[in-house]
Write a sequence for this structure.
């Protein structure tokens, strides 16, 4: 048996630009395109395969993954993580290079794929199991376990179209988790589902990894990656730029995030793919309202996070996640959960502001990831849109403890002490 | 504690070795690799069954009349055609009651036409599946074909019943029906897999198919007998695989005329050519589906 579960050698995947979103065309376009190409050829211009019409989503990617390793795949949006997973699960073919995969591969690239809305939960378990490569007898023998894990006994004979999204996610994960794959490829699925289920699925993945399966896991959540994986691989623009112990790779990634935040945000290419981009995030910064200083806030004072955008759209909203220097999320600020005290101001200009009264963070460096909405759609999103530092301050009359202690947040509090 | 852990690990590893040691090399492929690789198809056989079961289950879910639709459509056409073509236009029907004559052609045609129409959309209906999971994609049009064959089984049985109501006892040649069905299925699978593959790239297929199927209907001797054609046209027309199938259905179920074995033979050959050409094309472009779908 091969030492390696997966061995990749100079893998590369090339896409024609403009193909990824809308690859299909009409016959007319193909005919016109064909004629144009012929005409160009007659005029003596050669079509250059490596020209600007092509994009290498992956290039020269080589690595070996041993049996039983748990690998975290890290990188910005568009760095090639999903492309790599798709290659390894045989959905797409590499343009160059090769990968040897030894063992049964279970892939979970998007939860609920392979579910048919008209079929019942029971029927879908069999269909989805078969799609993931399980034999019928295997599915039958694990059926009860799967249903119990997904916690949907009562809805087994209901068509999946009547399931809540949480229910279908649970069922899909349950099927995949019971596949007992030798190699499990997971892409960002834990982002959905409730917290209890996320914990359960993480535990299950841990179990799968401990049982000797090889796991490749893609997530933006660095805490999850660190909890689950021993080794991290960092991709940037389709290339492996770091590969080693997970902590080192995560650190490298955090540094690259910080470098990216210094760039002009409009130049960034790692934007949220769901974004409609009718408006873009132009600049994000944090102001200390009292001192007027940017990107340095004294703890306990009022902080204002400003998001400048290119266009004002109807119904704009913003969801922010603030993470600490280890990349662990600390809190979420979300205007889609409105408060009666929120203000919608026509004269504000192309910006959104979030005021945090008495910033209760411990001293340290924090990162802002955000998603911008408008016109009822996701418009834009950026990881590491800005960084800011919190300096020691006073909260509710009490000095904020220095960093280095456990935790990131301090609450106003009062003691009652004897004597 | 530690010793136990060390002891169990190699044990688990050896269990895994027993399970699977096959290494798959993923690289850019050329030529015919998947559809024409029986080993690959065999490995995924359970999925083929599941997809076919899905297509059969879904076909009439949430319909009030269910599988009755399989026969209602040919019956309705039969009624209309007997009036228009049989009564007003006085088309020939090889001496058979026109209604039976038409129905015996309409039953296999309904199977053929629906397979072409549903099959050509089969890959596009499940784009998320194609772009997120690997499996032999030929199972998509194949599932539609199998579901259509179940329909055809139901409607063929009803056809025989109706024929007997008319007082005709099907001759022993009725045993040829499965062969005729296979000819129609081979042709349908060949064409539908090619169409579904083209559809991934050019959505024009969606508009061409209904119209092409309609044209094809009139090129096939369903409302008229093939005998109105003169030789050699009569024989040459069997290059259209449905000519052999439709004429064969009439002969084997209604016992009409001499055995059209020449037509059936030519149609069978033509169907086999279509099947392999269609599969070969599908195979050639399958590897790019996920890139462009």
């Amino acid at each position: 048996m091969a030492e390696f579960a997966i061995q990749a050698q100079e893998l590369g995947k090339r896409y024609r630009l403009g193909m990824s979103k809308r690859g299909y065309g009409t016959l007319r376009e193909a005919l016109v395109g064909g004629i144009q190409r012929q005409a160009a050829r007659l005029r003596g211009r050669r079509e250059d395969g490596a020209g600007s019409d092509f994009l290498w989503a992956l290039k020269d990617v080589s690595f070996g993954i041993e049996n039983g390793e748990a690998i975290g795949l890290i990188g910005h949006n568009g760095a090639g993580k999903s492309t790599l997973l798709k290659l390894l699960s045989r959905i797409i073919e590499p343009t160059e290079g090769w990968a040897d995969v030894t063992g049964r591969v279970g892939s979970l690239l998007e939860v609920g794929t392979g579910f048919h809305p008209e079929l019942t939960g029971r029927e879908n378990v069999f269909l989805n199991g078969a799609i993931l490569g399980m034999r019928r007898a295997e599915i039958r023998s694990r059926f009860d376990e799967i249903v119990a894990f997904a916690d949907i006994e009562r809805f087994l004979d209901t068509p999946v179209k009547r399931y809540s999204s949480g229910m279908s996610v649970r069922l899909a994960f349950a099927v995949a988790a019971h596949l007992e794959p030798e190699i499990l490829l997971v892409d960002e699925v834990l982002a959905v589902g409730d917290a209890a289920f996320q914990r359960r699925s993480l535990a299950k993945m841990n179990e799968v990894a401990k049982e000797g399966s090889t796991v490749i896991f893609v997530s933006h959540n660095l805490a999850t990656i660190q909890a689950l994986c021993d080794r991290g691989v960092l991709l940037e623009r389709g290339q492996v730029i770091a590969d080693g112990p997970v902590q080192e790779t995560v650190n490298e990634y955090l540094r690259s995030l910080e470098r990216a935040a210094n760039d002009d945000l409009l130049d960034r290419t790692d934007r949220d793919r769901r974004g409609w981009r009718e408006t873009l995030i132009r600049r994000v910064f944090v102001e200390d309202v009292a001192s007027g200083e940017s990107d340095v806030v004294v703890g306990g004072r009022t902080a204002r996070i400003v998001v400048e955008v290119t266009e004002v759209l109807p119904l704009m909203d913003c969801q922010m996640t603030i993470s600490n220097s280890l990349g662990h999320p600390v809190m979420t600020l979300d205007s889609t959960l409105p408060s009666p005290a929120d203000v919608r101001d026509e004269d504000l200009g192309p910006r959104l502001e979030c005021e945090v009264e008495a910033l209760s963070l411990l001293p340290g460096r924090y990162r802002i990831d955000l998603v911008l909405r408008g016109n009822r759609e996701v418009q834009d999103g950026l990881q590491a849109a800005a960084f800011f530092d919190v300096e020691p301050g006073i909260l509710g009359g009490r000095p904020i403890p220095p960093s280095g202690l456990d935790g990131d947040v301090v609450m106003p509090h009062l003691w009652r002490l004897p004597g | 504690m530690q010793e136990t852990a060390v002891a169990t690990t190699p044990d688990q590893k050896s269990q895994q070795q027993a399970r699977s040691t096959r290494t798959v090399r993923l690289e850019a492929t050329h030529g015919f690799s998947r559809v024409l690789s029986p080993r690959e198809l065999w490995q995924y056989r359970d999925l083929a069954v599941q997809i076919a079961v899905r297509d059969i289950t879904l076909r009439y879910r949430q319909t009030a009349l269910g599988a009755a639709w399989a026969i209602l459509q040919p019956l309705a056409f039969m009624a209309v055609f007997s009036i228009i073509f049989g009564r007003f236009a006085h088309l020939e029907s090889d001496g058979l009651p026109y209604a039976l004559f038409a129905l015996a052609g309409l039953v296999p045609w309904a199977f053929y036409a629906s397979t072409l129409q549903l099959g050509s959309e089969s890959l596009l209906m499940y784009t998320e599946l194609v772009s997120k999971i690997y499996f032999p994609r030929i199972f998509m049009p194949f599932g539609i074909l199998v579901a259509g064959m179940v329909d055809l089984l139901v409607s063929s049985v009803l056809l025989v019943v109706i024929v007997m109501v008319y007082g005709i006892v099907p001759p022993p040649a009725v045993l040829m029906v499965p062969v005729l069905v296979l000819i129609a299925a081979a042709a349908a699978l060949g064409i539908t897999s090619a169409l579904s593959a083209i559809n991934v790239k050019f959505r024009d297929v969606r508009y061409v198919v209904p119209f092409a199927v309609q044209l094809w209907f009139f090129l096939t001797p369903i409302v008229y007998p093939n005998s109105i054609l003169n030789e050699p046209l009569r024989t040459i027309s069997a290059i259209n695989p449905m000519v052999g199938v439709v004429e064969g259905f009439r002969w084997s179920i209604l016992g009409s005329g001499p055995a059209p074995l020449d037509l059936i033979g030519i149609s069978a050959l033509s169907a086999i050519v279509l099947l392999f050409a269609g599969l070969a094309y599908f195979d050639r472009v399958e590897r790019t589906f996920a890139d462009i779908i």
Summary: Chain B touches chain A through 46 residues (CB under 8 Å). The CA atoms of residues 187 and 273 of chain B lie 8 Å apart.
